[in-house]
Every structure is written in C-alpha cells, then in structure tokens.
C-alpha cells in the first residue's frame, strides 16, 4: 500500500489579546483627554483625531469593585495568506516585511483593533498599550 500525501497550507493566522472592559455602570469621559499628538503616536488616524476622540474610563463603583473594569474583550489580528505573502515567506522575507505587506493588503493589527475598541468606549488606552505593540 502506497502512502498518499496530503498537500496542506496555512490560509489564516490569528492573534488574540484580552483586555479589560470598562465597567458600563460607571463609564465616563476621561477628565484629562490626551493631546492629539499622543493619539496619533498611539495609532489613531489623523481623520479620527480631527473628528474628535473622547477617551472613556471607569470611575469605580460597587458593580466593578471600585476597579473601573468589569469583564474582558478580545483584540484580534487576522492575517489572510495571499499569494504575495506566500511568495515572500518562501523567499525568506523578514517578519517586518511580511507585516507591512499584510497591512497593505488590509490586515487590521492588534493595536488598530484596540484603537477601534477605545473609539467605541469599550476599553482604555492603558489596556491597549499594555497588550499591543505598534
């Protein structure tokens, strides 16, 4: 009996980080909003900064045990393998080159996923910075 070979390949690579969710019972705008330069440096787009960003935080209450957070939410980075990326891997491209190409092809990074959660008032800048890299 001849063994048969099954050709398999990776189609998607997913990364996940969990960050704390702001307590819905005591959520309020951060009293000291960060300057636009800091928001740009963190990963927000110019359009988002120009539109205006209200950073939220949890004041702390009985529901969240005075922590300001209750529960967790996931940040996701999903890399869909394209022919370009496959060719780059086979030719020995660096991780940085692969990441740059993936972003060009529309991949949302963990940091960008975190920025979206901040914009939606789900988590804080501190949580996203703690769990992601630029």
Keyword list:
134 residues, alpha+beta, two-stranded antiparallel ribbon, 6 helices, 36% helix, elongated
Proportion of helical residues: 25-40%
User: With helices defined by DSSP (H or I, 4 residues minimum), what is the helix count?
Assistant: 6
Largest sheet: 2 strands, antiparallel
- The number of distinct β-strands equals 4
Strands in their spatial order, largest beta sheet = 1-4
Terminus-to-terminus distance: 52 Å
Low confidence ranges: none
What's the alpha carbon Rg, rounded to whole Å?
19 Å
Net shape: elongated
Mean pLDDT: 93
Task: Report strand %.
Answer: 15-25%
Question: H/E series, N to C?
Answer: EEHHEEHHHH
Indicate the structural class: alpha+beta
List the helices and strands and how they pair.
Elements: E1 12-22, E2 27-29, H1 36-42, H2 46-51, E3 56-58, E4 69-80, H3 83-90, H4 95-104, H5 110-119, H6 125-131
Antiparallel strand pairs: 1-4, 2-3
Helix pairs in contact: 3-4, 5-6
Write structural notes for this entry.
The chain is of the alpha+beta class and about 130 residues long. Helices cover about 35% and strands about 20% of the residues. The chain contains six helices and four strands. The protein has a two-stranded antiparallel ribbon with strand order 1-4. Helix 3 (about 85-90) runs antiparallel to helix 4 and helix 5 (about 110-120) packs antiparallel against helix 6.
């Amino acid at each position: 009996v001849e063994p048969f070979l099954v050709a398999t390949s990776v189609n998607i690579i997913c990364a996940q980080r969990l960050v704390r969710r702001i307590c819905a019972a005591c959520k309020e705008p951060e009293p000291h909003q960060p300057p636009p330069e800091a928001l740009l440096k963190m990963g927000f787009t110019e359009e988002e900064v120009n539109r205006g960003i209200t950073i939220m935080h949890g004041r702390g209450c009985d529901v969240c045990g005075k922590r300001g957070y209750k529960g967790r939410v996931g940040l996701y980075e999903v890399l869909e393998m394209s022919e370009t990326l496959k060719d780059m891997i086979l030719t020995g491209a660096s991780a940085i080159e692969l990441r740059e190409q993936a972003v060009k092809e529309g991949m949302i990074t963990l940091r960008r996923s975190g920025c979206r959660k901040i914009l939606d008032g789900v988590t804080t800048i501190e949580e996203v910075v703690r769990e992601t890299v630029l």
